[in-house]
Amino acid sequence: MIAPSILSANFASLGSQVREAEAGGADWIHVDVMDGHFVPQISFGEPIVRALRPVTRLPLDVHLMIEPVDPHLEAFAAAGADSITIHVEATPDPARTLQAISDLGVRPGLTLRPGTPVWAIWPYLDLAEVVLVMTVEPGRGGQAFMPDMLPRIAQVAERLAALDGERWLQVDGGLNSATTGAAVRAGAQVIVAGSAVFGREGGVAAAIDGLRGAAAG
Ligand code: DX5
Ligand code: ZN
Questions:
Q1: 180 lines ligand 1 (CB under 6 A)
Q2: Rounded Cα distance, 174 and 151, in Å
Q3: What is the mean pLDDT of residues 121-141?
């Protein structure tokens, strides 16, 4: 699946950018929330989720790069998030936070920074329906894919295969037509892409097609 990240969209016409992504075959819309504290930049908050909810039928996949995270879950759920992915570093009790997301009727997701050892997420995998492997340092779009995260993708894929239920292995950061193939071969199922989708000369639909081709090839 392809999940365009609106972080790279034109915010002055966000609704039409999301419609363009949907018409172009996007599967999820990835929404990057940054607080200027957990990561250096500030992007936007829950009002953007609420504004986009009537614009698209696609799942809104909210990636929270915020700390603390627990006080904000309810607002993002109420705004219309379909999945909420939290950072294992951003909560004192990841199990409780993931359970709280489930209790709100939202698909719980778990991620970690590249510098955090992968075993930090093992105790919580069974509570996560989305597991996101960051392939750049979270905080901004347009960075280079970190190939040393490929073994981590494979390790997570192996662990998820041993668990029941529908679960998605997602990758985020530096995914483009040159890097997507390797990520998919390592086990990635959901490709988040910002700068490879929005603001490209050929348009959003062609960019999504290009990523799908790279995933298949
Ligand atoms: C980075 C965000 C990403 C970002 C990806 O902190 O989590 O979702 O938008 O951007 P690209 O695809 O440009 O690397
Ligand atoms: Zn993201």
A1: no
A2: 16
A3: 98
Alpha-carbon distance 179 to 3, whole Å? 15
User: What is the average per-residue pLDDT within 197-214?
Assistant: 97
Which CATH code, of 3.20.20.70, 3.40.50.300, 3.40.50.1370, 3.90.1150.10, is assigned to 2-216? 3.20.20.70
217: pLDDT strictly greater than 90: no
Rounded average pLDDT over 74-103: 98
pLDDT in tens, 153-190: 999 999 999 999 999 999 999 999 999 999 999 999 99
Q: Quick one: tokens of 67?
A: 């700390």
DSSP letters, 70-138, are GGGHHHHHHHT-SEEEEEGGG-S-HHHHHHHHHHTT-EEEEEE-TTS-GGGGGGGGGG-SEEEEESS-T
Nearest to 198, CA basis, from 38, 30, 1: 30
The domains of the chain are located at 2-216
165 Rama class: left (phi>0) / alpha (psi -120 to 50) / beta: left
CA distance 204 to 193: 11
Q: What is the pTM of this model?
A: 0.98
With a 6 A CB cut-off, is 30 part of the ligand 1 pocket?
Answer: yes
- Closest atom of ligand 1 to 7 CA is 9
Amino acid letter at 209? D
> Higher confidence at residue 199 or residue 101?
101
Q: Is the CB of 173 under 6 A from ligand 1?
A: yes
Of ligand 1's listed atoms, the one at least distance from the Cα of 173 is 14
